[in-house]
Amino acid sequence: MGRRMFLSCAIILILAGLLFGCGRTGQESSSPSRSGPQNHIIGKWEDTEPLLGGSSPLGTLEFFKDGTLLATHFYAGFTSSTGEYKFVDDSHIKLDFGVVLGSYVCRFSLSQDKLILTYPDERGVRTYRRVAGGDS
C-alpha cells in the first residue's frame, strides 16, 4: 500500500512539473524581445496617401506599449476607433477593433520610419510613416 501511494504521488508531481514547466516556457517565448517589432511599432503612424484633393492623410494608427491601438480614419468625416493589436508571428499582426469594425490579420513590414500593412480586404497595401514616438 505504501509503495502504491508513493508511486501515485511521484506520478502526480511529475505531471504537475511538466504542466507548469510547459506553461512557463510558452509565456517566456511570447514575451516581446527588446529589438523585435513589438517595441519598434510603438508610436503614431500616418497614412502616406492623402485624401482626394487635399494634403490631410487618410488616417493614422497609434500603437501603445500595453497592446492597445487608436485608429483615426476618414469615413464620412474623421472618426476614431480603439482596439488591440497582437503579433501573430514575425510578419503578421492582428488588429482587433471589436464587434463594430472587426479584426484583421495583416502582413506587415517595419523599418525605421516606415510601416507597410497589407490588409485582407479592399484597403490592400497601405504605407504609413512614423510621426511620433517609438525608438527612432
Quote the distance from N terminus to C terminus: 67 Å
Q: How is the main sheet built?
A: 8 strands, antiparallel, barrel
Radius of gyration: 22 Å
Shape: globular
CATH class of the largest domain: Mainly Beta
Kindly report the name of the CATH homologous superfamily of the largest domain: Uncharacterised protein PF14869 family, DUF4488
Mean pLDDT: 74
* CATH level-two architecture of the largest domain: Beta Barrel
The arrangement of helices and strands along the chain is HHEEEEEHEEE
Strand content: 35-45%
Write down how many β-strands occur, each being a DSSP E stretch of 2 or more residues.
Answer: 8
The tally of structural domains comes to 2
- Identify the strand order in the major beta sheet: 1-2-3-4-5-6-7-8
| Percent range of helical residues | 25-40%
CATH topology of the largest domain: Lipocalin
